[in-house]
Design a protein that fits this description.
This protein has 3 domains: 289 residues, HUPs (Rossmann fold), CATH 3.40.50; 151 residues, Isoleucyl-tRNA Synthetase, Domain 1, CATH 1.10.730.10; 87 residues, Beta Barrel (OB fold (Dihydrolipoamide Acetyltransferase, E2P)). The chain is built from 20 helices and 26 strands. The longest helix is centred in the middle third of the chain and has 30 residues. Is required not only for elongation of protein synthesis but also for the initiation of all mRNA translation through initiator tRNA(fMet) aminoacylation.
Length: 709
């Protein structure tokens, strides 16, 4: 691992938290997998050697319980879900280099070898502990078969985690007032001999590791509290039949805890990829094993992309295991926030979710959802999905900004020239703007910001719209054909740069754009250098890349969702048991919460006072308001800001009486970057609250131009 800026000359591994093989995927689950795919593709655009791997988490109690309920073996049950996931991810253009599972031969062998290494190095010991036991059913109860009270905060807790309270990992025997989840019987604690990994020995190492760790700040900050409180050694075995057997002497027939073999699948999946393509193409040992590469003895660049509910496993237990067995430590952990649905948590028991298959069955293309999930807030922030918000982002940014520029530029070029109008060179202005976009992409990769990757491209498209509007090549074709050709060459150069730089977020759409540009090969195989080269292909007749989403469609989708929820809730009232099983490897969505409200979650990202001071927020007064032709929601406002009067585009048309707006005082972000929407340049942003766009105003007499502090 290095801390050099990407790209480096070391092999990189990007992993995603393993989906738990226990139920359908919804768009909340997809956030980390899309984020991981975007980040992996972006690394490759920079020229970084990268393997993108994951796999299904097959073991654990919920799989065993649900398999028994369905009358099948746990292996058959988990394999069925694994195969469904392997089919679903490519439908959303999430293309793993290898997608394995924790029960395959490779992971079984790698896991047992690593545990033997832990034991040989003296980091594993036996200890008598109190394990929950159901005296009526005469069986020992692994963690997920137990529920009770958290001993630290008093919240209701599962046997291995206080999932409803303080989020702490819980060891066997810690839950108070234990109850069997199988029978509902009160449980009692009995002594059993189990294996422990001495995590406490690694406290000093882990403190230093967190100081070095890159990625999102929540992945660094959250574990520090656990270290400061004193790390407890980790029980790594369980009393159950389904799992990987503890290697060596194992008289009690213990299996390894699911969180031992789950992260080891990252190594196993990378190994399988290397074995498939050959070590000359990708060397898994150089990435994962310290000392395997003479050039880089400390290993490669390992980046974990996970849900924030499994930070502890990836920043405490996992790096301690790697350090103890001479493996490379992770360079970065990117921990995503949760996804809510209309301000509330997803509820699988009430069918309150947008399912992955449902999204596709509705006829939507995967790339707009990828864009929404990647760019709607910082990666560690909670984000809210609603069909209305999805429509607005697609229509305004993908259709109105990116798609509008690409279609108008390429259509004009195709109609007026036999092929791409190649000038001697791209103009200095456009070349500099493309270079700035490339720099923004490089910075986004090194800041671990998938949102900034998308912003870099939409900003470039805004520039393209402004550039073509300012130069008006349609008026130059007859008056100055050479100048018209130069302008359109510049526009096609920007379009090519967009195809290259937007590929990580919208890979399928960008491959289609690449074909419209007449470029050779595949956009998936090029690096950012291709964005600098300018257009060279014969242009095909373009088609619009992104489709507008109509209001009527959103209304129908909301009605369908509400109907499903009402039907499921009626079933609950008739006595049906909830069937939520969002446990396991990467439960990166907010699930049932009786106290959930319609308020968006607060951001975990904080800004400093200096950052706030850079926001130029002013009081303005709306002088004029009128609709914009072709835009259902947008108004063109003329707003008096004291020193000047500006044109600002705002999505208020359906939410306010247009005739009542003149004279209204509003709060304006005055130093917002300019943007072109439906041909109108917007110079600022009017601030409003909520879905109904409640305009922010003043209580007193502050006049236009007054600065908000």
């Amino acid at each position: 691992m290095s801390h050099d800026d990407f790209p480096t000359d070391r092999p990189a591994v990007v992993t995603c938290g393993l989906p738990y093989a226990n139920g359908d995927l919804h768009i909340g689950h997809l956030r980390t997998y899309v984020g991981g795919d975007v980040y992996s593709r972006a690394l490759e655009r920079l020229g970084q050697e990268t393997a993108f791997v994951s796999g299904s988490d097959m073991h654990g109690t919920p799989v065993a319980v649900n398999a028994e309920q369905e009358g099948v073996s746990p292996e058959a049950f988990a394999l069925d879900w694994h195969e469904r996931y392997a089919e679903t991810f490519p439908k959303f253009n999430v293309e793993f280099d290898n997608y394995g599972h924790t029960h395959d031969e490779t992971n079984t062998a790698v896991t047992q070898e690593l545990v033997r290494d832990l034991e040989d190095a003296g980091h594993v010991y036996e200890k008598e502990i109190m394990v929950a036991y159901d005296p009526v059913d005469d069986q020992y109860l692994p963690d997920r078969y137990v529920e009770g009270t958290c001993p630290y905060c008093g919240a209701h807790a599962r046997g291995d985690e206080c999932d409803e309270g303080c989020q702490r990992h819980l060891e066997p025997g810690e839950v108070e007032d234990p109850v069997s989840t199988i029978t509902g019987n009160p449980a009692e604690y009995r002594e059993r001999t189990h294996k422990f990994f001495a995590v406490s020995e690694f406290s000093e190492y882990l403190s230093g590791f967190l100081d070095r760790l890159e990625g999102t700040s929540n992945a660094r900050n959250q574990p520090r509290e656990w270290i400061e409180q004193g790390l407890q050694d980790w029980c790594i075995t369980r009393d159950m039949d389904w799992g990987i057997d503890y290697p060596g002497d194992n008289p009690q027939n213990l299996v390894l805890y699911v969180w031992v073999d789950a992260p080891i699948e990252y190594i196993s999946s990378t190994k399988q990829y290397s074995e498939r393509v050959g070590a000359d193409e990708y060397d898994w040992e150089a990435a994962w094993l310290e000392g395997a590469s003479d050039a880089h003895p400390e290993g490669g660049e390992i980046v974990h992309v996970i849900g924030r509910d499994i930070i502890q496993h990836h920043t405490i237990f996992w790096p301690a295991m790697l350090e103890a067995t001479d493996h490379a430590e992770p360079r970065a952990v990117m921990a995503s926030g949760f996804v809510t649905l209309g301000g509330k948590g997803f509820s699988t028991s009430r069918d309150r979710a947008v399912w992955a298959d449902e999204y596709l069955d509705e006829g939507f293309h995967p790339d707009p959802l990828r864009y929404y999930l990647a760019t709607n807030g910082g990666f560690q922030q909670d984000v809210d999905f609603s069909w209305e918000k999805f429509r607005d982002r697609v229509n305004t940014e993908l259709v109105g900004t990116v798609g509008n520029f690409l279609y108008r530029s390429l259509l004009f070029a195709h109609r007026n020239y036999d092929d791409a109008p190649i000038a001697d060179a791209t103009s200095d202005e456009v070349e500099a703007r493309i270079e700035a976009a490339i720099a923004d992409v490089e910075a986004a990769v090194n800041d671990y910001s998938v949102r900034a990757l998308g912003d870099a491209v939409t900003d470039l498209a805004r520039f393209g719209n402004e550039y073509i509007q300012r130069n008006e090549p349609w008026n130059l074709v007859d008056e100055d054909p050479d100048e018209a050709a130069r302008v359109i060459h510049d526009c096609v150069a920007v379009a090519k740069a967009i195809a290259v730089l937007f590929e990580p977020i919208a890979p399928e759409k960008c491959e289609r754009l690449w074909a419209q540009l007449g470029e050779d090969g595949s956009v998936h195989e090029v690096t950012v250098e291709a964005a600098r080269e300018g257009p060279a292909g014969d242009l095909a007749e373009p088609t619009e890349l992104f489709d507008q989403i109509e209001d009527e469609r959103v209304e129908a989708l909301n009605e369908k969702l509400e109907s499903r929820v009402a039907e499921a809730e009626a079933g609950d009232e008739e006595g049906d048991e909830p069937d939520d099983e969002d446990d396991g490897g990467d439960a990166d969505d907010a699930t049932d919460d009786p106290d959930a409200t319609d308020v968006d979650p607060l951001s975990d990202d904080r800004i400093g006072f200096d950052d706030f001071q850079e926001l130029d927020i002013r009081i303005g007064r709306i002088e004029e308001a009128e609709g914009i032709e072709g835009a259902d929601d947008l108004l063109r406002l003329r707003v008096d800001l004291g020193a000047e009067t500006r044109t600002i585009v705002a999505g208020l048309k359906r939410l306010h009486d247009v005739d009542d707006l003149p004279g209204t005082k509003v709060v304006v972000l005055a130093n917002m970057e300019k943007a072109e929407l439906f041909g109108v340049e917007s110079n600022g942003m009017v601030l409003a609250a909520g879905e109904e766009a409640d305009l922010l105003t003043t209580h007193g007499d502050a006049g236009p131009g007054t600065k908000v502090k």
